[in-house]
Amino acid sequence: MRIFAHAADLQNLRRTAEVLSMSQPAVTQAITRLEEELDCQLFDRNSAGSLMRPEGRVLARRTELMFQQIEAALGEFGVPVRRADTATYQITRSQIRALTEIARSISFADAARKAGLSTVALHRAARDLERNLGKQVFVAGQSGFVATRNAEQLARRLAVALREIDWAVDEIAQVRGHRGGTLRLGAMPLAGGFLLGRALDEIMRHYPAMHAVVHTADARELTTRLRRGDLDIVVGMNRPQLETDDVVQEPMVFSPFVVIARRDHPLTRKTEVSLDDLSEFDWIAPTFGSTRRGVFNSLFARMSKPPIPKVETNSLTTIRTLMSVSDRLTMITRFEFEFEHGVADFQILPFEQITEGNAIGVIQRRNWQPTALHLKFLDILRQQTT
């Protein structure tokens, strides 16, 4: 990648070899190997030089972004500027993989297994990384090396940098007419699931060869995965505390919460439902720590004996099943209710408006450069929430 970056800048393999103090055949061999791995031609070679093809321009842009992020991450880690400039091109994929797996794993042996390396090879890669950076990255733990706290941040930044090459591969395929690519998505319970199903169905009409991987978890877990590059986009409720220096939220629709019950519930026969009425029935409450749970708690905060829910879940399937066979109540946003055409056999109770609500939208990494597939998917989400 270092050789390609210089060749893309100079567009002349002979001059690239001179700058890197390499032989021209070695440079040519490296570029040829890269083209074989990508199954495409990156340059049109002639006597005047090597002009980049569209595929080459895509890879050059992503490669530049990758090296910029690596250099910035090393600078943030405290590597001196001059050394960081050199280390940016000396660091290897195996060294980054060693760091990221050690930072994520519960033991050194577990990290070696996940990295697909022997413990000896992982140890060597870890030590080589420390020599390249001239700083301590690992400390001895009970089960082998563990990353220092600052190194965990470095691991996250480097893992995101390497994803640029994955996106380059997708974009090169799209340049060549392949309507594919990969979406790595996070879906928060309820809100994320409501939006994702239809959006995925629509995006596959435009990109029939695409592949989507959807992970469902709570907001904190999904944001952690997003920050370390495992996910590209998280869909669900926006929360102020989730936004950090490297994560940004885009609200797409704001919707208040409503109380719902099955259609033949006793409270559906009333023209007006009071707080006392609601407290007489069992509730399916959101889990602790969620925005919904905060709204639920504040709704009954002024009561001396608020309802004590026997079930706490954010699973729509569980909620639907329990409510369809009982008089239990729950709370969702009006948007979720309307988006799912009334959530099957349930209806909104005539209870006073719950003024508290939250924005539903997406979370992305700040300054991220999405592919055309990502941009189209985001456009579909925006259209569906308009």
Written account of the structure:
- With 386 residues, this protein is an alpha/beta fold.
- Helix content is 50%, strand content 20%.
- The protein is built from 16 helices and 13 strands.
- The strands form 4 sheets. Strands 5, 6, 7, 8, 11, 12 and 13 form a 7-stranded mixed β-sheet that branches. Strands 1-2 form a two-stranded antiparallel sheet. A two-stranded antiparallel sheet has the order 3-4.
- α13 links the parallel β9 (284-285) and β10 (311-312).
- α2 packs across α3, α4 (54-77) runs antiparallel to α9 (149-175) and α10 crosses α16 (372-384).
- The protein is elongated.
- Belongs to the LysR transcriptional regulatory family.
- It comes from Paracoccus methylovorus.
CATH fold group of the largest domain: Arc Repressor Mutant, subunit A
From the spread of the alpha carbons, the general shape counts as elongated
Which range does the strand content fall in?
15-25%
Number of DSSP strand runs: 13
Spans of at least 5 consecutive residues with low confidence: none
